[in-house]
Design goal:
The protein is α/β, with parallel strands linked by helices. 34% of the residues lie in helices and 28% in strands. It contains seven helices and ten strands. The strands form two sheets. It has a six-stranded mixed sheet, sandwiched between helices. A four-stranded antiparallel sheet has the order 2-1-4-5, with helices on one face.
Amino acid sequence: MLNLVVSHVSKQLKGKTILSDVNLDLKSGNVYGFVGENGSGKTMLFRAISGLMDVSEGEIILNGKILHKDMKVLPNLGIIIENAGLYPELTGLENLKLLAKLNHKISEPEIRETIKRVGLDPEDRRTFRKYSLGMKQRIVFAQAIMEKPDILLLDEPTNALDEKGVNAIREIIKEEKQRGALILIASHNKEDIQMLSDEIYYVKNGMVRRWEETVCS
């Protein structure tokens, strides 16, 4: 069982507060949804939690270990975040094989199976550059889940997908939850959040509150 705690986390950037005293207590086997307008702080929160961005105040703690003190980044993490591009001149399979070499956790048959799982053909010889937006989204999602991570940070996971693709990604997220992953989703798609989330948080001006609190206040 994983317990991910965000304790009094704030972040200032160029004199502007982009995260303000954020407190979260998250556990594996759950999906946590984050909603808010563009620029509200959702993506910055995910960057902070992953370890891709230092925080100005507070701590991010995974099972008692403090990020940037006991570990550089969250271990066994799968992530989709803005501007996360793959190599444009490689195929989807080639891209994922290259990424898999970083951790040596999975073999080519598992990579191929993951590509099929997201609805793509591992034998497709088109390069990433020639993929449609929906295909690009699917292969980026594949790289996030292919190593069966303990934690998934998914920023707009169904972006640019048609209805079939959206439904496929939602089903995979449900399967990853059943597997025991701790999943955070930021999405403008209200159905994604409502259908998948065990708890929903509202992000505004860098502040994060549980959805029930914003409704009642």
